[in-house]
Specification:
- With 341 residues, this protein is α/β, with parallel strands linked by helices.
- The chain has two domains: 8-215, Alpha-Beta Complex (inorganic pyrophosphatase (n-terminal core)); 220-337, Diaminopimelate Epimerase, Chain A, domain 1, CATH 3.10.310.30.
- 41% of the residues lie in helices and 18% in strands.
- The chain has helices at residues 8-19, 34-49, 82-91, 107-117, 148-158, 167-180, 191-202, 207-215, 220-232, 249-253, 265-270, 300-307, 325-337; strands spanning 23-27, 53-58, 76-77, 94-98, 122-127, 138-141, 234-237, 242-247, 277-284, 287-294, 311-312, 316-321.
- The strands form two sheets. A six-stranded parallel β-sheet has the order 3-2-1-4-5-6, with helices on both faces.
- Strand 1 (23-27), helix 2 and strand 2 (53-58) form a beta-alpha-beta unit.
- Helix 2 runs antiparallel to helix 6 (167-180).
- 45% of the residues are buried.
- The chain binds manganese (II) ion.
- The site of manganese (II) ion has 6 residues, from loops.
């Protein structure tokens, strides 16, 4: 079950860095999802148990259905408190990067703040996206693992922290494992994944509590937005085994959207019979946010990197474009027509 791929010397280095650090900042990506919030939450809980001063930094707001994750209530959100983030970063000895591979994933503000403080910060990266940054002193990167939270569990094992896992830490870890695998249904889920869940259940984790907290707290407006997106914004291109959903800013604003409200829409497009690639285009202030999903060998990570200035995993990737919505969609059409994806 314990398959942390760090070498013995890397594990020792991580241990020494953590032992010698008092003030620790935990950072995760923009538009934080269950794995992002879960991994910083679990890590903050475990480090606080070691009497560390821990600050969690989010670039922007956490979705309401993840508010219960430990560390979230007291977190610093850069969008609302850039000075607080700057101060935390300047006082920190150690920065732990969770669920993102490089500083391009956290927005310009947090990125610059980290870059200003890199001279005095030690950095540990724990992430499952491809092509991790090379600057951290410890890089725990494993693209075969389906969630960063699962890696956090392995990392905790390597640090000898598993004996002391409390229920809140396990709920945070389970939250990321569950959401990044759409409830354990992706091919990247392994026997080890389930063994970790089994281990945690024996220590008191109740998975249904996490499912209810994450999934059964939807606002009526979100459900209506989902209905609108499926009946008005869905396009199916059978010829290319493709489907995509588009929402303009004006349409979204009708539904008073909250962070996380459009999460999962792209998976509905992918679930249409015969579909092997899906996209969701969401117009935002000054940019278009895109989610890609695919099945089998269609590689949306490669496509997102090459054509949309984004990236992620082979079957799930994201991007942000600063071109008009219709041009971004045109580009996707073009790639399908020219058989590039
Ligand atoms: Mn993840």
């Amino acid at each position: 079950m314990l398959k942390c791929t760090l070498s013995l010397s890397e594990i020792q280095r991580a241990q020494e860095i953590i032992d010698s650090s008092k003030n620790i900042v935990l950072s995760t990506h923009q538009s934080p999802d269950g794995d992002a919030v879960g991994s910083v939450g679990a890590m903050s809980q475990m480090l606080k148990a070691l009497n560390k001063n821990v600050k969690v930094v989010f670039p922007d707001d956490v979705p309401a259905n993840l508010n219960w994750v430990p560390g979230t209530q007291s977190a610093l959100v850069f969008k609302q408190d850039s000075n607080g983030v700057e101060q935390a970063m300047s006082e920190a000895d150690l920065l732990i990067i969770l669920d993102y591979n490089h500083l391009g994933r956290i927005g310009d503000g947090v990125k610059k703040c980290i870059e200003r403080n890199l001279d005095h910060l030690k950095v540990i990266l724990i992430d499952h996206h491809e092509q991790p940054a090379e600057f951290p002193q410890v890089i725990y990167s494993d693209t075969s693992i389906c969630s960063t939270c699962e890696m956090v569990f392995h990392f905790a094992g390597a640090m000898n922290w598993l004996e002391k896992l409390d229920v809140h830490t396990m709920e945070a870890i389970y939250c990321g494992m569950m959401t990044d695998t759409m409830s354990f249904r992706f091919p990247s889920v392994t026997a080890e994944t389930h063994e970790i869940v089994s281990f945690m259940m024996k220590k008191g984790l109740k998975p249904h509590v996490v499912h209810e907290q994450v999934h059964d707290v939807q606002r009526l407006e979100k459900i209506k937005l989902t209905g609108f997106a499926l009946s008005n914004g869905l396009h199916v291109l059978e010829k290319y085994k493709a489907a995509y959903i588009v929402l303009t800013k004006a349409e979204l604003d009708e539904f008073n959207p909250q962070p996380g409200d459009t999460e999962g829409l792209v998976n509905m497009a992918l679930s249409i019979e015969g579909t092997t690639i899906a996209a969701f285009f969401r117009e935002d202030d000054g940019c278009v946010r895109i989610s890609f999903r695919s099945k089998g060998t269609r590689d949306v990570n490669k496509m997102a990197r090459a054509h949309f200035n984004g990236g992620g995993h082979k079957n799930a990737a994201g991007a942000r474009m600063h071109e008009p919505l219709n041009e971004v969609i045109q580009k996707f059409h073009h790639l399908l027509e020219s058989n590039e994806i």
